[in-house]
């Protein structure tokens, strides 16, 4: 295993639990809701993105995790690690997870996949959409003994989620899921979704996982974007820690254009059109072109093309006036052009917005602002 992967796993296990002072570090909360499916009170865990309280107009995709309390902290750490740096390589996302008590309540009913999905569809999703600022884009994830549930959701409630992660699923013969899934694929040639499968060494029901992949190879329509990743050097305990970030990066890969891609090279209008189509056809909410345009602008600055870079940054200023990063980018262009007086108000706005939004960049942007002030004072 690569050192970077080991470091990532180590970080996930230890960072979420304690602060340096020894005080508990709160990563989420447990809610109690009325369940029509279970006919009793039920509990769920929820973790909100870091920007949720400050960015009061922002809405977020939702990641629904079927499992128990044990994986909650790891999932929180993964989502935050992948989104904290200007939402790259994935957007900030609300996490909703079953508590162990709720999972046990459903298991006592016979571990039926439909119970998990009906609980989410009837009880949880309407509650979350009512009480939190959500986008219509939803992910469902599970694994091992609960691993059949995302596949059941795809077959029976394909309108409920947009992406399905099933990690080390134990697909049993008696469930009939393989034959149901094959029939579903044959009958639904226009199904549009993202499906991620993964397995590790010693997978229980490994033969059925292989059959599942074979069914997809033979019958999956082109509109179904599916991937199978086999972490054969890892146990099912550790491969899940590698599978989740890989699945998320793969799902959201099209949100970020490389600056040397044909679309990016065609210019700002091409980039804006790309993101408009992506927003409409895949995500159902506005996907920002800000980062791609920003990367192109900085690349132009490195080539000393200040005028061209400024024109790109102006587009971001117009389209994303609430982003602190677009003001820092413009300030940078002014600094390269030795126009420190013009850079100062831009960097000040960047810092104020970052502070207001509790951005990870607030201290860095304050430092840049102070440096510009010092530069002007020294002249």
Q: How would you describe the overall organization of this protein?
A:
The protein has 2 domains: 3-255, 3-Layer(aba) Sandwich (Rossmann fold), CATH 3.40.50.1820; 262-378, Tetratricopeptide repeat domain (Serine Threonine Protein Phosphatase 5, Tetratricopeptide repeat). Helices cover 51% and strands 17% of the residues. It contains 15 helices and 8 strands. Mean pLDDT is 90; it is low at 1-19.
The overall number of domains is 2
Shape: globular
* C-alpha termini separation: 53 Å
Portion of residues within helices = 40-55%
Number of strands: 8
Order of strands across the widest beta sheet? 1-2-4-3-5-6-7-8
Query: What's the number of helices?
Result: 15
Radius of gyration: 23 Å
What percentage of the residues does DSSP assign to strands (E)? 15-25%
Give the tags:
globular; 8 strands; single chain; alpha/beta; 379 residues; Rossmann fold; Serine Threonine Protein Phosphatase 5, Tetratricopeptide repeat; 17% strand; 8-stranded mixed β-sheet; disordered N terminus; 2 domains
Write a brief caption for the model.
This protein is of the alpha/beta class and 379 residues long. It has helices at 3-14, 72-83, 100-107, 113-131, 148-156, 177-187, 206-219, 236-251, 262-265, 268-283, 290-302, 306-319, 324-336, 340-356, 362-378, and strands at 29-35, 40-47, 60-65, 94-98, 134-144, 163-169, 193-201, 224-235. The protein contains 15 helices and eight strands.
């Amino acid at each position: 295993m690569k050192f970077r992967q080991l470091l990532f796993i180590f970080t996930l296990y230890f960072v979420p639990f304690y602060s340096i002072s020894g005080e508990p570090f709160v990563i989420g909360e447990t809610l109690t809701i009325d369940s029509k499916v279970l006919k009793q009170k039920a509990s769920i865990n929820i973790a909100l993105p870091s920007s949720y309280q400050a960015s009061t107009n922002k809405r977020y995709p939702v990641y629904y995790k079927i499992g128990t309390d044990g994986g909650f902290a790891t999932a929180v750490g993964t989502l935050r690690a992948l989104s904290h740096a200007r939402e790259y390589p994935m957007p900030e996302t609300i996490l909703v997870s079953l508590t162990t008590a709720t999972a046990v309540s459903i298991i006592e009913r016979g571990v039926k996949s439909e119970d998990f999905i009906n609980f989410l569809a009837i009880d949880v999703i309407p509650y979350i959409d009512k009480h939190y600022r959500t986008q219509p884009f939803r992910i469902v994830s599970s694994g091992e003994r609960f691993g059949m549930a995302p596949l059941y959701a795809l077959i029976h409630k394909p309108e409920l989620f947009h992406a399905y992660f099933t990690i080390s699923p134990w697909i049993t013969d008696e469930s009939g899921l393989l034959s149901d899934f094959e029939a579903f694929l044959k009958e639904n040639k226009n199904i549009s979704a993202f499906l991620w499968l993964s397995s590790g060494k010693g997978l229980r029901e490994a033969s059925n996982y292989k059959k599942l992949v074979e069914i997809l190879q033979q019958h999956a329509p082109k509109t179904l974007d599916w991937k199978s990743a086999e972490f054969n050097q890892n146990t099912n305990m550790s491969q899940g820690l590698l599978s989740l970030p890989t699945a998320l990066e793969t799902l959201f890969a099209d949100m970020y254009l490389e600056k040397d891609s044909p679309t990016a090279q065609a210019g700002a209008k091409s980039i804006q059109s790309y993101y408009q189509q992506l927003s409409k056809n895949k995500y159902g909410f506005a996907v920002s072109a800000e980062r791609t345009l920003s990367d192109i602008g900085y690349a132009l600055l490195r080539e000393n093309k200040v005028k061209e870079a400024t024109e790109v940054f102006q587009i971001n200023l117009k389209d994303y006036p609430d982003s602190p990063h677009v003001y820092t980018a413009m300030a940078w262009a002014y600094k390269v052009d030795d126009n420190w007086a013009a850079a100062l108000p831009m960097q000040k706005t960047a810092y104020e917005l970052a502070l207001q939004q509790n951005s990870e960049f607030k201290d860095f942007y304050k430092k840049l602002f102070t440096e510009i002030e010092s530069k002007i004072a020294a002249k």
